[in-house]
Amino acid sequence: MNKKLILIGPKTGIKGGGSVSFNHLLDELDRRNVEYTCIDMPGGNYSFKRFFLIAVYLFRIAKSIKRNCVISLHASDNSAIVYTIFLDVIARLTGSKLIIRVFGGQHLNIIKQKNSFIKKRILACYRRHRLLLQTKKMVENAASEYGLMNVRWFPTSRPAATPKNSKSFQPGPLKLLYISQVRRNKGIDRVIKLAGSLSENKLNAEISVYGEVFDEAYILEINSLPDQVIQYKGVAKSEEVYDVMRESDLMLFPTRYVGEGYPGVIVEAINVMLPVMATDMVSIRDLIDHEKDGLLVDFEDEELVLKKVKDLIEDREMLIVLHKHLEQKRNQFSSEFWNGEFFLSLVEGDKKREPQRAQRTPRNKFGTGKNTSNEEVV
User: Fold this and answer.
1) pTM: predicted TM-score of the whole model, two decimal places
2) Is the CB of residue 272 less than 8 Å from the CB of residue 244?
């Protein structure tokens, strides 16, 4: 690669979809022996109240940016707006290329809520540089509502995985999985209510809960129910997630978070061919075809959700049909393509690349592999 590549994103901090996706990008670049500088941007609310504190730090970073670099920002909502406005200035002063990747599914709605000055400024930046959005609907709306034509679709992706064996859908307790943050906006309360109904109706199902805890009250509620119905099992390590999914029969994704883009756990479930029952949302419809390879439901309708689960307990063949249809989607969201061929084609000027299969480079003590610098935003 002729130009220096500088990546800015949430390498550390709270584990969420954005940080996981950013780290998968770093992993794929390491695997291909691509050299880069990584500037860590821990998660947080990067609003304009903190703009000048951020700007002072970034100006220090700017001194190390040589001319004609490729700067790639990976951020969500307000942080994407704040950093893009600043990095636009740096990119133009240094003659560098700027690529902006925005996580989540609500970024255009966030822009609508800004005052006219900020809205005009950020849209001007997006017209000058390459913008990457997570959902197809956002790409369409960016063009139709704002005339943004320099926009590409960059969905959530995850590494390829060995699929779940269809023979594993065996009689016995239906093994339900919740693997997400333990907080209300991700729907953990809905999972607990379902567990209560399963216990009350003596249905043969068990729920395993994994994820970072944001409200301990939910753990107390889980512990108040029988262990054979629901258990909290801690935070699954990244290398354990696929194994946990292969041991399950159905994943529950009862989110009420309006900012959902393409949830990484659903992409991971698709990769292992694990059927998912998820909240019916526009963005999630891009991932799940209702009653073909998964289920889309209104989790507020507790009776409907219970009925769907009961039907699956009584007829495992329904799960096998959903499972087999996922075969058609397994390779659509592979990290090897999106973080490899696709992203590097943008970095190198949209030239068509031949797939590379380099050996993975072991990461150093900072977890950065071929990363030549490890700055941290404070």
Assistant:
1) 0.84
2) no
Tokens of 109: 């709605």
What would the two tokens of residue 258 be?
Answer: 């309006």
> Which of 173, 164, 176, 178 lies closest to 323, judged by CA?
164
Which residues does 360 contact at the CB level (< 8 Å), separation at least 6? 27, 30, 31
Cα separation, 88 vs 311, whole angstroms: 54
State the sign of the Cα–Cα–Cα–Cα dihedral 307, 313, 315, 319. Answer: positive
Confirm if 208 and 182 have CB atoms less than 8 A apart.
no
CA dist 378 and 365 (Å) reads 20
**Token digits of residue 261:** 């883009």
DSSP assigned state of 181: -
Q: Give the chain's length.
A: 378
Distance in angstroms (rounded) separating the CA atoms of residues 124 and 116: 12
| DSSP letter, residue 368 | -
Pairing assessment for the beta strands 174-179 and 205-210 based on DSSP bridges: parallel
Given a contact cutoff of 8 angstroms between Cβ atoms, the answer to whether 156 and 262 are in contact is yes
Side-chain half-sphere of 184: how many Cα atoms within 13 Å? 2
- Enumerate residues 6+ apart whose C-beta is below 8 A from 98: 71, 72, 73, 84, 87, 88, 91, 128, 129, 130
The amino acid occupying position 316 is R
pLDDT of 138-174, one tens digit each? 999 999 999 999 999 999 999 999 999 988 888 899 9
CA separation for the pair 221, 190 (Å, rounded): 12
In the prediction, which pLDDT does 50 show? 56
The encoded tokens of residue 324 equal 């087999």
Q: Which stretch of DSSP H or E encloses residue 79?
A: helix 77-94
pLDDT band at 72 (very low <50, low <70, confident <90, very high): very high
Residue appearing with tokens 């219970």 = 306
Q: Computed from CA positions of residues 325, 327, 332, 333, in that sequence, does the dihedral angle turn out positive or negative?
A: positive
Q: What is the DSSP letter of 123?
A: H
